[in-house]
Amino acid sequence: MSSLSGIRRALLWAAGGAETPDLAGIDQDVLVRALRQHRLEGRFLRRLDDEAVDAPETLRRRVAAGHDEVVARVRDQIALFRTVRDSLHHEGRGPGLVPVKGFGLYALTGDPAHAAFSWDIDVLGADPTEVARAVEATGGSGFHFHGEEHPYVFAHMDDVEVHARYIVTGMPSQLAESAVDVLGTPGRCELRTPFSISSVTYDDLVDLLAPGTGEAQEIDVLGPEMSVLIRCAHVYVGFAMNTQPLPWATVRLVELAQMRDYLALGSFDTDVFRTLHERFDAGLVTDFARRLHLDLFGEDPFEPVLGASSAIRDWFPRNLWWDGIDAGFPVSLPWAAADLVASDADHQDLADLLGPDPVVLGSDGTAALSFLATDDDHAGRYVFHRFGGDLGSIRAELSATPEGLHATAHFPALEDQQMAALGWATGTYRYELFYRPLDGTHEFSDYSSDKTGPRPRVELCTARGDGHELAVVFPWESLGVDAPADALDLPLTFRARVQERPWGAVVGGVVAPLRVSRA
Questions:
Q1: Which of 156, 195, 150 is nearest to 175 (CA)?
Q2: In this structure, are strands 357-361 and 506-518 parallel, antiparallel, or unpaired?
Q3: Which residue, of 292, 320, 341, is where some domain finishes?
Q4: Domains in the chain: how many in total?
Q5: CA distance 264 to 245
Q6: The model's pTM
Q7: What is the CATH number of the domain that holds 409?
Q8: Nearest alpha carbon to residue 394 among 407, 383, 409, 379
Q9: Are residues 306 and 257 in the same domain?
Q10: What is the mean pLDDT of residues 242-267?
Q11: Both 358 and 326 in a single domain?
């Protein structure tokens, strides 16, 4: 049994599902990789042993070997956390440093089945700058200091991510889905209700900690109530940001299983959780977690805590472009819980899903577009908002050359405290450019899953005329296009916004689905 449905059944069973999978003929290579993607090796092995389920011995050995590596990694992460914490000069409330995600459940229970793979530890500290220095002093690879120029990651290296806050996404429960039905709104679609966020800081955590056990002895970790809230928030971000399902683990099943484990602990305090739920406006993220449990496992573990499942909202907004704060581009898009576990469907490009504007390059290989223009010479299909005021007109020019696609954007004049942001995406290729006119600096980010071959280059970011101009050259290979592109047919999502620095209020923005072709 190598079908996706068989793999999905095995994953759900490992995460606590009732239906026992048939493992006899399953594709072991695929299952082993999928268990790692969902961080379920320990739970899979535990159920094999507890329920005496038949499984090929080679599969059992491979998963066990992988989990041994996970346990060793988690223990190393605990030791690294201890090193960083002990190097801090903290004299205030609490331990000075708290692990927000990573080894928390394992630290509370000491159960090896609760040791789950994680690339890094997410931490919140009393003094993020001091924590960042302590992390850098460990000598680990990949250290980068962001400070206030990143919306939530203050600094990171390969093994530790230092947060200044953790974000819980919200949306008014009374907002009708029709208000953000982008697929049912042809032409230009204006959004009028932004997301909201509640920020969890170190000071919010210090009275909600619990002592670790075993290797984590003398380490304070999040108690079960805040742990559940953080996992709900994290799961929702994965759903909202990935507007099309990933092949594996758009939502990691281990996080749903951890929610149930925390809720079942004898130390879980329902009153404390309800207070946190209200304080951090967690209705959206907990409703989504409840919906996933019902759709995937057939039961709602939150019902004894939050009341009847009938009260769960019936739709959940996705975000066409995250801006680090509470604006975003909240829209309703179709989804299915099973696809968030694993999906082999050939999903449309986001531009095609949204209904692209045809952009036909002329005989000279160029085309021009304008958005939010005062005249009639502008694009016919895009999503926009003016949450923070009047954005003004944004213009874009595309030019195809033998080298690639030259993309230029023109913004109205930016104020010193503002920054311009641009995004381009097609398939699994995604890029963003941030420009700060006050000091003339820019930052280009490549979020593509495939970074081989020639990469894009920023050609200019400058004041020009009565506005600002940004230009990037995309080699054809960096857009997944074979060159020369004589038969060009490229779905492309163009994004632009103006935002207060650093990561403050968004004046407004545009998301435009395009289909670029030659005449």
A1: 195
A2: parallel
A3: 341
A4: 2
A5: 30
A6: 0.94
A7: 2.60.40
A8: 409
A9: yes
A10: 96
A11: no
Structure tokens at 449: 């899953």
Q: What is the mean pLDDT of residues 7-19?
A: 97
* Least confident range of 63-67, 289-293, 441-445: 441-445
pLDDT at 1: 42
Cβ neighbors of 134 (< 8 A, separation 6 or more) are 84, 87, 88
Which pLDDT does position 344 carry in this prediction?
87
| 244, 116: one domain | yes
Q: What is the 3-state secondary structure (H, E, C) of 38-100?
A: CCCHHHHHHHHHHHCCCCCHHHHHHHHHHHHHHHHHHHHHHHHHHHHHHCCCCCCCCCCEEEE
Q: Say yes or no: 317 and 376 in one domain.
A: no
For residue 27, CA distances in Å to 15, 17, 32, 130, 438 come to 19, 20, 9, 48, 56
Q: Which 3 state secondary structure label does DSSP give 187?
A: coil
Query: How far is residue 342's CA from residue 30's CA, in Å, rounded to a whole number?
Result: 11
Token pair 């998301």 is found at 511
With H, G, I as helix, E, B as strand and everything else as coil, classify residue 376.
Answer: coil
How far out from the chain centre does Cα 401 lie?
A: 34
Domain end, chosen from 320, 341, 362, is at: 341
Domain of residue 373, residue span? 350-518
Q: Check residue 399 and report its DSSP letter.
A: E
Bridge partner residues of 369 (DSSP): 396
